[in-house]
Amino acid sequence: MEKEFIFPDLGEGITEGELIKWLVSTGDYVNEDQEIAEIETDKALVSIPSAFSGKIKKLCYEENQTVKVGTALLIYETDETSQTEDTKSDSLKETENTQSNREKDPIINKKKPQTEQSIQNTTHLLPLATPATRKLARELGVDLHSIKGSGKDGRIIDDDIQKAANKTEISSEELTEGLGSKTKPSPSEKASPYEAIPLKGIRRKIAESMQASHQEMVMVTHMDEARVDKLLEIRKEKAELAKSRGIKLTLLPFILKACSIALQDHPYLNASLQEESIFLKKYYHFGFAVDTDAGLMVPVIRDVNKKSIFKLAKELTELSARARERKIDLEELQNHTFSITNIGSLGGIFFTPIIHHPDSAILGIGRTQQKPIVDQNKKIVPAYMLPLALTFDHRIADGATAARFVNQVISYLEDPDLLLLEEGEN
Q1: Alpha helix locations (H) across 245-347?
Q2: Residue 80: phi, psi to the nearest 5?
Q3: Phi-psi region for residue 70, left (φ > 0), alpha (ψ -120 to 50) or beta?
Q4: Would you say residue 317 lies in a domain?
Q5: pLDDT band at 340, cuts 50/70/90?
Q6: Based on the domain organization, do 257 and 366 belong to the same domain?
Q7: Domains held by the chain: number
Q8: pLDDT tens digit string along 363-375?
Q9: Are 307 and 361 found together in one domain?
Q10: Which residues are paired to 383 by β-bridges?
Q11: Residues with active-site annotation
Q12: Mean of the pLDDT values across residues 80-109?
């Protein structure tokens, strides 16, 4: 009996994903909950487990194709009444051999006798190529199924990918031939003046989120600076203690804590506008931007107001690592109420961050730098200044609210003792 495995709804509006890698092959016998594929959604890279046990009859998609939620991902043969124990044993042994070969080369499938069924199944086998070569093909937009490999046993190598990519570029020579022109183009005209990169995965999600923010919100940015000499001293004093606990202590957990306290006095900056109502949220889940190879990701730390500085620092480190390794769960990217983005480590002072939809505000952190200021005694002294840029939705909050919020955050950062005293009241 045939049974379809339907690509499930993964939540939060996800309607499709890109099939990155099959972890099984046609003919394999898989068990319930065994991972069968890696699919990249617009949120994260997800390993898909099998919903039931059975022998795989057909893979309905090829790698790098887009899979729609609600469509059949693969087809099983699940009528075990027609299988003897010996047949099941052979299927399991075949799966083990296939998995052993895949550990040596994830793309090579176990060769089977050329029966009518196996010949039919060869249309679903993956092209021979190493993971690095497959990654290069994805980056250059090359379909591996359209290439004849020049490596051993027909394996596709990097040179094959480069040649195929060059053939897809539109040259001036091809254009003139198509128009019937006999004019020979110069060498400089043969090279394509552009490269087309498909907008997909996380980059597409970023584009959609940014577009939604600009279309639905009225964004204004309020900027100021905080003197953080005392805060830097505390961080330096506690750095060794934090290190002994496996924690890297930066300024960011202090800023998270300061914002969680200040937002309780300014609830319209921890809110969202939905239809005709403003929802003031009584919980404080903060998203923070992480730069990854796949694009910008925003993991979420939950209940910031209930956690210590060390606890926040530890979660920042762990979530950042999982985001960069693409091992982060979807739940860890959802239900944010406020966001913080930090460009200070890369450079830059002031900027205008874009709100992470559907939040009502985001705080941008620039590079801390030492500069001369005039102190209370009207003397010019050196001081470490931290730039702050709060972008807020002007439909929900006013400029005065934004200024008061930033002033309160500054007061906690400039007087960390006050920040630590306030912490015990949450």
Answers
A1: 252-265, 309-324
A2: -75, -10
A3: left
A4: yes
A5: very high
A6: yes
A7: 3
A8: 999 999 999 999 8
A9: yes
A10: 371
A11: 394
A12: 44
